Amino acid sequence: MMKLHWSPRSPFVRKVMIVLHETGQAEAVELVRTPVAMAEPNLSLIPDNPLIKLPTLVLDDGYSLFDSRVICEYLATRAAERGLALFPADPQQRLRVLRQQALGDGFMDALLLYRQERNKTEERQTPAWLSAFALKTEATLNFLQANVSALDQGGFDMGAITIGCALSYLDYRFADLDWRQRAPDLARWHADVFVCRPSVVCTEPDETP
């Protein structure tokens, strides 16, 4: 059985979990709770991932895969026909999906750093960093709002999954930003296409210690 180093609150782990459910492979993976923190590296993860990051997927033969992009493509390929919808074969459509996935991944990376900076005591915060993360968040939301038609046309593919996870992470960790007010069409897509999906519902983050 494959082993997934996992946390219930990581948006990158959630992305992988959604793919597992979408491709019918959730039962083929053992979830191993592996806490990681920037200031407290989890040394037990080094044999499987020298970067000490989640998610990390360990295959049956002990070969490990990281990061979420590699893991998701492997799972989609492994699922054959069920994974085809996630990464379209058509070159133009595949490029669209990969671009959306890159945007969603970059957005989640920025949000994780943004949250870390916001969680510092005021005297330890760097105002320029907070301003930069706020600018990136606003610019990404504006871009997605202006290009929501690409999400509408694509279906529930890897691009949609990644962007949906990023928006849901905004809800989970940045409720005060009220992103829906500035991106109403994007909010409609998130509600109508993403959050109602069974694979999304069953991977909601929780506060398990």
TrEMBL record:
InterPro entries: Glutathione-S-Trfase_C_sf, Glutathione_S-Trfase_N, Thioredoxin-like_sf. The keyword Transferase applies. Keywords: Transferase. PROSITE patterns: GST_NTER. One of its GO terms (molecular function) is transferase activity. The keyword Flavoprotein does not apply. Pfam families: GST_C_2, GST_N_3. Residues 1-83 form the GST N-terminal domain. Gene3D superfamilies: 1.20.1050.10, Glutaredoxin. This is Glutathione S-transferase domain-containing protein. It comes from Advenella mimigardefordensis (strain DSM 17166 / LMG 22922 / DPN7). The lineage of its organism: Bacteria, Pseudomonadati, Pseudomonadota, Betaproteobacteria, Burkholderiales.
